[in-house]
Amino acid sequence: MRFCSARSEGPACTAAAPKPRVAFLCVHNSCRSQMAEALGRKLAGDVFESFSAGTEPGGRINPDAVRLMKQVHGIDMEASQHSKALADLPPVDVVVTMGCNVQCPTLPCTHREDWGLDDPTGKGDEAFLAVMQRIEEKVLDLKRRAQAGAWK
Known about the structure:
The protein is an alpha/beta fold and 152 residues long. 34% of the residues lie in helices and 13% in strands.
């Protein structure tokens, strides 16, 4: 895949250009954005780097999200991820907001989109599983678009 990111250097973009960095943002960085980061790493890690952060980090990942991601995808988010602030992010190429109905600070990026996902926190497993499935679909779509050079 050939990708010219905002971080690419030199007069010409080459196949050796770095993978784009995608930031998944939410208010507390405890549920949807964490699931998106984990699924991005698992399903699209060959195409882009995944990060997540929150405007008001919650301190820990939602235990229901941790449990269900482990059951469904075999991903232990507690072992590899933690709640982070926007300031903890590296420079990114793509910003994906989860649909938090708040105004996120502007981060420099080449592409920005909102996934409009409902927060399953406080709801049953069915709500978590439905959101998890939507995130999986959207991560795979993002991967397909990145491979097609959508953000050149």
